[in-house]
Structure formats: C-alpha cells, structure tokens
Design a protein that fits this description.
Length: 206
Amino acid sequence: MDECACQGPSFSVCDSPARRQWLMATALGGGALAVTAVVPFVASLSPSERAKAAGAPVEVDIGKLAPGDMMIVEWRGKPVWILNRTPDMLAALKKAEPMLADPGSERPQQPPYAANETRSRRPEMLVAVGICTHLGCSPSAAFTAADAALGADWPGGFLCPCHGSTFDFAGRVFKNKPAPTNLEIPPHQYLSDSRLIIGSDEREKA
C-alpha cells in the first residue's frame, strides 16, 4: 500500500513510485495554504505488486488506527483514505451541512450502504478515495476548525491545493467550489473489528 500526499493529526503511508508522485504533486501545489501538519506514521499492510496491478481488493489492518489518525493505502492506483474520526469530527459533519453542495449524498458517489450522514459503514470510520472530483488532484488534510487560511466558519476537513475545492470529514464538497461532486466512497467491508477490505463487498456475493 502506498503513500499519498495527505496529512492530518496522524496518518500512515507506505512507499512506492505512485506515492512519490502524489507527494511531489502536493508539495508543489500545497504551499499556498499552510493547513497541514507533520504527523507520526501508522503501519499498514502492503498488497503484492501483481495484486495492485490487477486491481484486486486490498486488505488493511486498522487495529492500531487511533481516533484522529488517518492512513492512506493504494487501490487500483488510487490513494484511499482511512480516517478514524473523533467525536468532534463527527459533530463537525452536522455543522458543515448548510455549506455543502450535496449534503445528502444524492449523487451516486458511494455504495448504498454509505449513503448516510457519515458516508460510512461505521460512523467513526471514513473510507474514501482521496482524489478531487475536479481535475484529479489529491487533497490535503485541513483538520483544524476555524483555520486562519480557510475562515472562521471552517469546520475542518480536506483542501485541494490545486484549485481550492474543500470537503468535510465525510468527503462532501462545499458549495461554489470547482469540484462537481463529493469524493468517491469505494466498495468495502469489515472482516473483523481490526480488518478492512477495500474493493470488495457482500454485493459481489449476492
């Protein structure tokens, strides 16, 4: 599983050529707004190169992902965020709703089981593809509420440094931004309390 450019209170990454491309892209584009922080790493599993090339499901160990931490893995060549949201982050979802373009997730950017207020199978756990729906840049974490660079009403979430699209802690896009839709929620399911598989769910077994 590969490293991406997003950063937050805590996130994990693994190395690969794709990861280095993501890092370079955000390093070049992210200087305009200093909204990220250097954080410790959290270990994750790494699928085989053959499995990644084939777009196979990716199994992840989330047992050490503490509240407020985010890890980033690769699935089908895309960075996938796994964020263990704190109670404050969950509370910020409701605060953000009047400012969102699609607060009810009416557009089909998620499986049916994630078409809820948290866009997730578990309220605390966000699993989202970390690619902006505008031009495919990788947003950065902007977790601090009322960040000086984003305004006093900023509830926390993610910022795309390329063209300024912003997303809340459920990956829902704010109004009047270049990104046309919410972030994609990939198919996923929990194998246990500490094991998550991305790219597969029980619908395939129906």
